[in-house]
Amino acid sequence: MATTGTDLSRMREMNQLSIVWALRGNQPSTVTELAGRAGLSRPAVDVLVQTLVADGWAEVEEPGANSVVGRPARRFRFRADAGHVLGIDIGVHKILVMLSDLEGNLVHTLRRPADPEADPRTRLAAVDRAIDEVLRRAGMTPADIWAVTLGVTGPVDASGRTIISTPLPGWTAADPVAHLAARFPCPIQVENDCKLAAVAERWKGVASDADDIVFLLAGLRTGAGLILDGTLRRGHGGAAGEIGALKAVRWLSAPGHLENCPGIPATAAPGEAAAWVFQAARDGDRQAKTAVRRYTRDLAVGVAALVLALDPQVVVYGGGFSRSADVVLEPLRQELTKHCLRLPELRASTLGDESVALGAVRLALDEVDSRLLSDGLAAPTAPTA
Amino acid sequence: MATTGTDLSRMREMNQLSIVWALRGNQPSTVTELAGRAGLSRPAVDVLVQTLVADGWAEVEEPGANSVVGRPARRFRFRADAGHVLGIDIGVHKILVMLSDLEGNLVHTLRRPADPEADPRTRLAAVDRAIDEVLRRAGMTPADIWAVTLGVTGPVDASGRTIISTPLPGWTAADPVAHLAARFPCPIQVENDCKLAAVAERWKGVASDADDIVFLLAGLRTGAGLILDGTLRRGHGGAAGEIGALKAVRWLSAPGHLENCPGIPATAAPGEAAAWVFQAARDGDRQAKTAVRRYTRDLAVGVAALVLALDPQVVVYGGGFSRSADVVLEPLRQELTKHCLRLPELRASTLGDESVALGAVRLALDEVDSRLLSDGLAAPTAPTA
DNA sequence: TGAATTAGTAAACTGCTCAGCATTATCCAG
DNA sequence: CTGGATAATGCTGAGCAGTTTACTAATTCA
Description:
Two copies of one chain form a homodimer. Chain A folds into three domains: 5-78, Winged helix-like DNA-binding domain superfamily/Winged helix DNA-binding domain (Arc Repressor Mutant, subunit A, Orthogonal Bundle), CATH 1.10.10.10; 84-196 and 355-375, ATPase, nucleotide binding domain (Nucleotidyltransferase, domain 5, 2-Layer Sandwich), CATH 3.30.420; 206-350, Nucleotidyltransferase, domain 5, CATH 3.30.420.40. By secondary structure, the first copy, chain A, is of the alpha/beta class. Helices cover 39% and strands 18% of the residues of chain A. Chain A has helices at 8-23, 31-38, 42-55, 120-138, 176-181, 193-203, 256-259, 273-282, 286-310, 325-339, 355-375, and strands at 58-61, 75-78, 84-90, 94-101, 106-113, 145-152, 188-192, 213-218, 222-228, 231-232, 314-318, 345-348. In chain A, a hairpin with a 4-residue loop joins strand 4 (94-101) and strand 5. Chain A has eleven helices and twelve strands. At the A-B interface, helix 1, strand 9 and helix 9 of A face helix 1, strand 9 and helix 9 of B. The structure holds a DNA duplex.
C-alpha cells in the first residue's frame, strides 16, 4: 500500500479523468449533472469539460427542443469514436473479429470459418485478412486502433505465448504478439479464451451483478475462467482455471459421453453430435438422458473443486453447449449439491460463442483505460506499445 | 472504476497519509528522506510532519552524535504506540492472544491451554480471561484497543459466525463478534484460521515475496488459505479454500494414515502420534515411511486441485505438521509433479502455531489502515465500530 | 578560523477549487 | 407581444496547498 504524494497538476488530471468516467456510458450530460456525478463544483467541471472539448475527448450538443422552464443547458457527449479497439477470437473452427469504439459499442463484427488443421502461419494469415476486411469496412488504418486483444485456447503466459497443451496445431511455436506488433503500433495482448469469456459474462452477460464468478466454457473442450473480487485472475503463470488437467476431474473425457451416445444419426456432422444428444434428451430419449447425466456427473467434479476452492457467487455455464443449458443445469445442480458446502447460483450464458471476442474487446478497453489513468489524457491518440 | 473528484483538503489528507506510510516501518527519518520517499518537496513534508507531531502521530528525535558533514537533521519517528490491536487465535487446544502496536511489533503474547470439549460460553470466558491478563500486563483498558481480530476453525461468514462444519463443539450457535463487542468499542472481526495463517505467512513468514499463495494448514485437520494478487480471498460466502470437503480429495482421512501407522508406542499422547511417525520416517522406519507416503498422496490431490485452479507462485506447508516438512515436502513435490501442469515452489512455514494469531494481528492492522484511508487522520484515537 | 555541506525557513508564485453574483436564454402567463 | 419567473452560464475574488527559490542556521573538516 505505497501511497505516493500528489500535487496540483496530478489532482487536475484525476479530476479530468473523473469527468471522462462520468461522461462515458451515459446520455449526453449537462455540466450540473456531471458536477453531481463527479463530486466537483460546477465551475470546476465547466473548465474541465471545456478543455476536454478542445482536446477532442468530448463534444457539445447545442440545446434543441427543451420542454423545461429556464435557460436550456448545453449537453456534453463523450466522443466514443475518438479511438477504437479490436477484440479477436482465434478459435479452432472460426475467427471472430470485433471492432469497438471507446464506449464498447461494436462498430463491426466479422466471422470467418477456420480450418481446424491449419498451421499457425496460415491461421495468422487468415486473421490478418479478417482484420483487413474489418478495417476496410470501417475506413480505418492500423494507426486508428488503440489496443488489440487476442483470444486463443490453451493457457497463455505473460509474453502471450502458449507453452503447454493447445488444440491449435503447432501453436506452441507461434508468437502472435510479435506477428501483430509488426502491423499495429498499439499495445497487443493475448489471453486464454475461457478467461476472456468470463470477462465478457461480467461485462455484458449474465453475471454483471457478481464479483466472484466461475465461468465454464463447455464444448468439445471444457475450460474455466475465474473472476474474483471483480477482476480476472490469471494465476502466476497464466494457468489459473486449468483444473481440467487433474486426472480425478474427467473434463477431457466428459464430452465423450455425448459423442459416443448410441442413436446419433450417421448423417450428423462431427460438431453436431452433442447438439443432437441434447435435443434427444430434451425430447425424452432414455439413452440420451443417460449420456447427458454421465456428462454432467464428470463435469460436476471439476466444478465442485472450483466452487469449494473459491466459493464464488455465480457459476456461469457458457461455451458452445450453453444453448443446451436447459437440460444440463438441473442435473448439474443436483450433482453439485452432493459435493459442495454452499451452492452458488447457476446461470446459463446468453452470449453464446461471441463471448470470447467480446471479452477480448473488454480487455482491450481496460488496457486503454489503464493508460489513461497512468499517463493522463492529452489529445486522444493511439498509445504505442 | 468509479473515480471520484478530489479537492485540496482531500489531497492534503492523502499526502499526510503518504507521509505516515513513509514513516512507518522505517528507521527514524529526516525530512529530506521522507520527501524522497513520498515524492513531495521538502517544505511540504516539513509542514505535514509538523502537524503529525502536533497531533501525536509522530515524534521528533533531536540530533545527537552525527559523523556526517553539514547541519545534522532532526529525525522523525512514527509513534507506533499511539494505538494497539489484538490478534487472537481460538484453537481447539489453545488460546493465543497477541497485543501489537501500530507497526506490528508484538507487545505481549499470552498462550493458554483450552479444553477441546469446552462449550462456546466456557471457551469465550477463557478468551476473556486471557485478554484481561494481556491488557493488565500492558497496563491498558479496552478503550486503548483500536481493532480486534479473532481466528477460529471452520468457514466464517460476513457476520463472523461459523455456520457449517467446525470442530469447536457447539460453535455454530456462538456469536463471538457480539460477545466481544460488549467489551470493546472498536471494530471486531472474525476470520477462518487457515486464511489468517496465510496472511501471516505473507506478512512475516516464508512467502513475503509472493503475490499468489496457497497456504496449507496441515495438522490433524487440513485446510487451505488463499492469497491472490496480494490479498486474501474469502470467497462470496467466506468459504474459499474448503476444497477438503470434496470427497475425491481425501483430506479428512489423510492424517489417519499417520495415526493408524503400526508401531506407534502406546505411551504417545493423542496429538503426538503423528510427530512420532514423522520422526520414525526420518530415521528410516519402513512402515512409517509408507504411512507418510500415503498421507502425502492423499494430501496432494487437494493441493493439486488448488494449484491447477489458481496457478499460485508458492505453496506454503504450514500448521502443526510443518515442523516435519523435511519428510513431507519432497514426496509432496513428486506427487504434485504427476498432477500439475506447472509446479509452484514448495516452502515450509517457519511461523509454527503462531501463524494464526499473527495473521489476526495483521488483519486488525489492515482494518486500522483502511479506517485511516477512508476517514483521514485526525488525532490518534480508537475508532468505533 | 573559514570553507563546505546540509537542514530549516520564509516569501513569492502557480494552479486549483469554490462561493457568490451578474448575465443570458428560454418558457409562460397575462 | 411583453414582462416576470426560472435555470444555466460566465466571471471574479478568496482561500488553500504545494513548488521553487533564496536565505539563514548548524555542524564537520582542513
